[in-house]
Amino acid sequence: MRIDIEDLTVRLAGRDVLTGAQLFAAEGETVGLVGPNGSGKSTLLRTVYRHLRPHAGRVLLAGRDLRSLGAAEAARRIAALPQERGAEADFTVREMVALGRTPYQRAFAGESAADRELVAEALAEVGLQGHEHRGFASLSGGERQRALLARAFAQQPEVLVLDEPTNHLDVQHQIDLLALLRARRRTTLISLHDLNAAASLCDRLHVLDRGAVVASGPPREVLTAELLAEVFGVRAAVVDHPLTGDPLIAFDHRAGAGGRTPRP
Ligand SMILES: Nc1ncnc2c1ncn2[C@@H]1O[C@H](COP(=O)(O)OP(=O)(O)OP(=O)(O)O)[C@@H](O)[C@H]1O
């Protein structure tokens, strides 16, 4: 399902933290948001999963304004892996993942056999089978992240919105997660700090800087040494990955602030 973000402005505490963002993800496309801390990535994603309201502009899902959908319909169509965490203390892992099925259940109807199967499949997909009965609060940061991803998968959404999903994951689980997302080929909006992961996963990237989209296109066109210096303030060479051929950003970890004044 296609998603369009039209001229989106979000105002928080009297300040426009996102201004006139314009982008889309076509059916089945994986579109990445990258940008420095505080550039507006989470704000944009929060507006898509209806945690925030636009001040101006709109988000369209298959041509329909997101705000015209009811809560259950929106939850069936869009699943989010947000950065903020709610009160999750008392759930088991299985209960947490099963929450992904609630938008499909009639009040008091409980779980169907199909729901149970989808929950088990989602747990297996993220490698958490065998951990169903553990308390969610007892999981490590990376295990929690995987359980929340399983909840999003169990929701069987048409659009996945993932805010920094590789946070807390060790390198093997990062790579596994990217492989899972590639295999699913669902319309996906994803923010990533790891630019090499973004370059290998995303069909197209949008670079955010101080609340505005400043560059858009396929990773190879967008992630140039000039852009990395200008937007991220780092020195880097962009080369071909020797194993995959993807763009590989080799950062100069010895360089200084790249001549850019640090952000407040
Ligand atoms: N509830 C809020 N009230 C006021 N300002 C906010 C609020 N939430 C976020 N902001 C500000 O909006 C700007 C964009 O924040 P956002 O979280 O979208 O950035 P980000 O690109 O996701 O950053 P990071 O990479 O650090 O996660 C920041 O300056 C942030 O301080």
Automatic annotation (TrEMBL):
Residues 3-235 form the ABC transporter domain. InterPro entries: AAA+_ATPase, ABC_transporter-like_ATP-bd, ABC_transporter-like_CS, P-loop_NTPase. Keywords: ATP-binding, Nucleotide-binding. One of its GO terms (molecular function) is ATP binding. SUPFAM superfamilies: P-loop containing nucleoside triphosphate hydrolases. CDD domains: ABC_Iron-Siderophores_B12_Hemin (cd03214). Signal peptide: none annotated. The keyword Iron-sulfur does not apply. PANTHER family: ABC TRANSPORTER ATP-BINDING PROTEIN, HEMIN IMPORT ATP-BINDING PROTEIN HMUV. This is ABC transporter ATP-binding protein. It comes from Kitasatospora arboriphila.
